[in-house]
Structure formats: structure tokens, C-alpha cells
Write a structure and sequence with these properties.
heterodimer, A: 336 residues, alpha+beta, 5-stranded mixed sheet, two-stranded antiparallel sheet, 62% helix, B: 15 strands
Chain lengths: 336, 251
């Protein structure tokens, strides 16, 4: 499922949420005030009507809210239309009950029952519609926040181990320490950048190389990376930080936990109208406890779907002691 | 002079710790007792190194620091362990490491000095404390010898049998006495071993079948046949129904 589909899903508001409850209270009372104003000749009369109406309305509204609060777990599971109908039915049933019970405690004449029912249904429908608009207005921001969270997901242990490695270099090889800090700042600049639509493949590859340099510093000869980039189209566009998390995974799961040295392969090539990227690492049998691989893959899958919809493909395979991730995206060239 | 041992899989991290030890030498003189690049190497080298304090990285290939510390605790003169980790606070809490002393990477000289002082004053964390912090099951069982820790991969163990104060551990070719309780072992390795008798746990994967016993003094009805060894192990009457059921669902 892509972010686009998830970003705004048509479900009823959660009536356990205080914000939702507050919105309902305000909206219903505003409707009542508007009704009072509409029917009255002047402000003073409108106020009087509103107070009279509120005395009738508020108890019913509170009962409705409690009922919706209790029904909320069920409502969340229903499809929107069914939930909508259930809310209307619930509100109307409670209004009818209220209308039937009220004469026992109140001597005053009541408004016509059908009128109460029709008004309840109208106001409930109006409030639901309003809440749906609110949810819709928020969803792009939610999607963006999610995107940013995805991009900032580099493992803290990588940062601190890298800093530790740089600290160890400062005295014995200051120049190399400088380069490492430059790489680290480039990497984090990209990670903290505003979420962009697309980056050029050449930029993403440069990022991969910086990242690999830092890992090399820490892991030394335990990490051997083979780069096959001759056929990589440097002008191809892709969402930022799609390949780096895959390389990070390959090292984290395939090299770091091994006592022997591990070989990682990075191959990027263009095949006609498609761009293919493959990252391979040793498949370590004992490496099933270290969590996190799935999450990174799901993130990338979601983002590829967001940018390319069904045109992108990502799959993984482990065979012959190697673990392989392959990504295929449509080739779209950046304008020169 | 405090004899310090450094175990970390990353060369720069070991370099850094050595540098820091140099830096604090004026206020806290230390000497290097040895270094190791992974958990197994650490266990091999530490017993003869005469180390008093061990700076032990938690995330190491082969065997992580938490398990290393559990095996080391068997030594009569085990060094005091100071854990070192690059994990953020959140992960450290997940380890329940709060109870133990640890240093966060990058390590500061002042923190290192404080940890070394505390380690010398405080002594090593107990085995139970380490077991709690480590959480998961060990990959190895260990036998402490005079200047050596012998490791037996748990996957090689065919059965564990309680004998008075000790537990006998049997593999295809070896037999050792380990100082642990059968109940704790059963809990730690639940799923891998099944109880066939009040005093005996057997590796599920090693069970090849059952034989009818001849009816000795305890009248064992059934005997477990294990792969690779001739010895047959009696199944108690009480464990038999559960055992049979368990083996029936084995793929």
C-alpha cells in the first residue's frame, strides 16, 4: 500500500479524541445559535431562544457524545458509509428516547417529535461532514511528516560509532579525520534536508560513497565493497535516500555481525527505460535476531510507491549464502 | 597500575580507548593487559591476561559483550566489566543495563577514569544480574578451568542431566560438569530442550526415537534414543504423555 492511499483514509473520526469532542460541541452549539438567530426578530430574542434551546439540547448532546465514545471502537472498524449510517441511527434513536422520556421530568410542552428527529439527523450529518473535511485538510501534513521521519531514520549507533572512529583518527591521521568529518556532514546534510521530490542518481551515488567511506573507517578490512557503476545513468532521477538505507542494511546485517570479512556488491545500471539497482551482502544465518531490516524495506517500498506508483519494484532474495535487494524504477532523466 | 583489557570489534574504537587510557595515566596509571577483536577472542585471551578491568563492547560479532561477561563471571578471578556501547539511551534501557556500569561511545576521558575507579571499588556484577541484562538465551555454555574458559555451543549439546550439585552436559564427543541449575537452563533454552525426566533435559532436535525399556528397578517404560551416542535415557512416567505429544508435532 502506498503512502498516498494511507495518507487520507476514509474512516470516521475517533470520538474518544478530546479534539473531536470539542469540535462536535462547538459545531452543534454554533448550529443552534444560527438557528436561534434565524428564527428571532432581534438579538435579545435570539439569546432567549438560544438559552431555551440549549436547555433542551445540551443533555441530549452529552448523551449522544457518551454513546459515540462508547461505540467508537466499533465505528473505527466499519467502512465509512456504514459508520455514517450507524451514527445517524444512534443519534436519532437517542433523540426519540429523549423525547419520550422528557415529559416524565418536565411539564413544559415539547417540540414536535418528527422535527426533533429530522434536526438531529441533519445536524449529525453536517457535523460528520465537517469532521471529514478537517481530517482531509490535515492529511498532506501527516504524509509529509511521515516522509521526513523516514528520511531521518539513520541508526544512531552508526553516528556514534563513526564519531568515535573519527576521534581515534584525529591525533594519528588528522587529514583522514578531516575527510571523515566532511563525509559525515555531507551525509547528515542530506538526511536533514527538506524532503525533495527527486535527486540525481549521481548525487545519490556520491552519498553512497561517502557513507561507505565512513563504514570502511570503522570496519577496516572486514568490509569489502565492489562497485559496479559503469552503466549507471548519472542523470536518472530517483527519490532521495532510497539506496543509502539499503547499503546501510547490507553492512549492518551482512558484515558487522560476522567475524570474517564480508563482501558487499553495489550494482546500478540502466536497461532501456528502466534503472536497476542491486545490493548484495553475505547472508548470515545467525543474523535473525537483529531487527530493523523489514522496517527499512517497507519504508523504501512505500516511498517508491508514493513517487512511482505501480511503476517501481523492489524485491529481496536470499540464495547461496547471499542476500540480495533489487530495485527497479522507471528511467527519468534530469533536465541538463 | 590497573591492568586493563580492551575488547571491541572496531580497530579505531580500540585505538581511542588506548589513547584515553594514556591521557588519564597521570591520575590513574594503567597498563594494557590485552586486546580482543570479538567476543570469542576475548574469552580466549582474558583468563591468562591477568586483567583487572575489562572494557567490553556490547555489540560484537560472534558473541556479544553481554554473553562474554556471563561466561567470564565463572572465573575465580574474573575482571570487573565496564560495558561500552554506542547505543542511544533508549536502547541501553531496553538492555536493562542501568543496573550495570557502562560507558557511551564516544567515550570521554573523565568518564573513563570515573568508571575505572568505580570498577575497582565495586567489583563485578553478579551472574543473575548479567543474565537479566542479557535477556536472551546464550549461544554457548561454559566450563571454567584454571586459566581457561571452555565454551560448548548450545546447539552441540545433546542432553543436560542434573547430578547432585552439578549438571552434566553431553555432546557427541564430550562430557562436562557445569555449575548451573537445571530449572534455570530449562527456562533459558525453552523450546530447544525438552524435559524427559525430573533430572534430565534433552535436545529436541537430537531425538531419533524411543525404545521400550526392559523394566529395571525404576521400571522405565520408555528410553530416548539420541543421535550420535549409544546411551539411552529413561523417560519418566510423568513426562511421557507430554513428550509423546511434543514429538508428534515435530515436523
Amino acid at each position: 500500500m502506498s503512502i498516498r492511499q494511507k495518507a487520507f483514509s476514509d474512516v470516521l473520526p475517533d470520538f474518544r479524541n478530546l479534539g473531536v469532542i470539542a469540535r462536535v460541541l462547538v459545531a452543534v452549539n454554533a448550529a443552534a445559535a444560527a438557528g436561534a438567530l434565524f428564527a428571532a426578530a432581534d438579538l435579545a430574542q435570539a439569546l432567549e431562544r438560544f438559552v431555551a434551546m440549549a436547555a433542551f439540547l445540551e443533555p441530549l448532546l452529552l448523551v449522544d457524545l457518551v454513546a459515540l465514545l462508547l461505540a467508537s471502537p466499533l465505528l473505527q472498524r466499519l467502512p465509512y458509509a456504514a459508520g455514517f449510517a450507524l451514527v445517524l441511527a444512534l443519534v436519532m434513536a437517542l433523540a426519540a428516547l429523549y423525547q419520550a422520556l422528557l415529559p416524565m421530568v418536565l411539564a413544559e410542552p415539547l417540540p414536535d417529535a418528527w422535527r426533533t428527529l429530522a434536526l438531529s439527523a441533519l445536524i449529525a450529518a453536517g457535523v460528520l461532514g465537517y469532521l471529514r473535511l478537517v481530517a482531509k485538510a490535515y492529511s498532506p501534513a501527516l504524509a509529509e511528516a511521515r516522509l521526513q521521519a523516514l528520511q531521518a531514520r539513520i541508526r544512531p549507533h552508526f553516528l556514534f560509532n563513526s564519531l568515535n572512529a573519527v576521534l581515534a583518527l584525529i591525533r594519528r591521521d588528522p587529514r583522514r579525520a578531516e575527510r571523515a568529518l566532511e563525509d559525515l556532514s555531507d551525509l547528515f546534510r542530506t538526511l536533514m534536508a527538506e524532503p525533495r521530490q527527486f535527486v540525481r542518481l549521481s548525487d545519490e551515488i556520491a552519498l553512497l560513497e561517502r557513507y561507505a567511506g565512513l563504514e570502511q573507517l570503522r570496519l577496516g578490512e572486514r568490509l569489502r565493497i565492489t562497485w559496479e557503476l559503469d552503466a549507471a545513468p548519472s542523470d536518472a532521477l530517483l527519490p532521495p535516500l532510497v539506496l543509502q538505507p539499503l547499503l546501510e542494511n547490507a553492512i549492518y546485517h551482512g558484515v558487522e555481525p560476522g567475524t570474517a570479512s564480508g563482501e558487499v556488491l553495489v550494482r546500478i545500471e540502466r536497461r532501456g527505460k528502466r534503472v536497476l539497482a542491486r545490493i548484495e551482502n553475505p547472508y548470515l544465518e545467525a543474523e535473525q535476531s537483529r531487527a530493523g531490516n523489514r522496517m527499512a524495506l517497507d519504508n523504501i517500498r512505500e516511498r517508491l510507491a508514493l513517487f512511482f506508483d505501480a511503476e517501481a519494484r523492489i524485491d529481496t532474495r536470499s540464495a547461496g549464502g547471499r542476500y540480495r535487494v533489487e530495485i527497479e524504477i522507471p528511467y527519468r532523466a534530469a533536465r541538463a | 597500575m590497573i591492568r586493563v583489557f580492551i575488547a571491541d570489534d572496531e580497530a579505531p574504537a580500540r585505538d581511542r580507548l588506548r589513547e584515553l587510557l594514556d591521557d588519564i595515566a597521570a591520575e590513574l596509571p594503567t597498563s594494557l593487559a590485552g586486546e580482543a577483536r570479538n567476543g570469542l577472542e576475548a574469552l580466549e585471551r582474558i583468563p591468562q591476561s591477568g586483567a583487572q578491568v575489562l572494557l567490553l563492547d556490547i555489540e560484537m560479532p560472534g558473541m556479544g559483550g553481554l554473553e562474554v561477561a556471563r561466561h567470564l563471571a565463572l572465573l575465580p578471578e574474573a575482571p570487573t566489566v565496564v560495558f561500552v556501547t554506542a547505543h542511544d539511551r533508549h536502547a541501553v534501557e531496553a538492555f536493562e543495563l542501568n543496573a550495570l556500569d557502562y560507558l557511551l561511545k564516544p567515550v570521554r576521558a573523565a568518564r573513563l577514569a570515573a568508571a575505572l575507579r568505580k570498577a575497582l571499588a565495586g567489583g563485578a556484577p553478579g551472574r543473575e544480574q548479567l543474565a537479566r541484562a542479557a535477556g536472551g538465551a546464550r549461544e554457548y555454555l561454559s566450563v571454567a578451568e584454571r586459566h581457561r574458559i571452555l565454551l560448548v555451543p548450545v546447539r552441540d549439546v545433546l542432553f543436560l542431566r542434573a547430578e547432585q550439585k552439578y549438571v552434566t552436559l553431553r555432546t557427541r564427543s564430550e562430557e562436562h560438569l557445569i555449575e548451573e541449575s537445571l530449572v534455570a537452563l530449562e527456562r533459558e533454552f525453552a523450546g530447544r530442550f525438552v524435559r524427559i525426566h525430573r533430572n534430565c533435559l534433552v535436545a529436541r532436535a537430537a531425538i531419533r526415537g524411543f525404545e521400550r525399556g526392559s523394566g529395571g528397578e525404576e521400571d522405565p517404560h520408555w528410553l530416548v534414543v539420541l543421535e550420535g551416542i549409544a546411551e539411552r535415557l529413561p523417560v519418566s512416567r510423568r513426562q511421557w504423555p507430554a513428550l509423546r505429544e511434543l514429538m508428534a508435532e515435530k515436523p
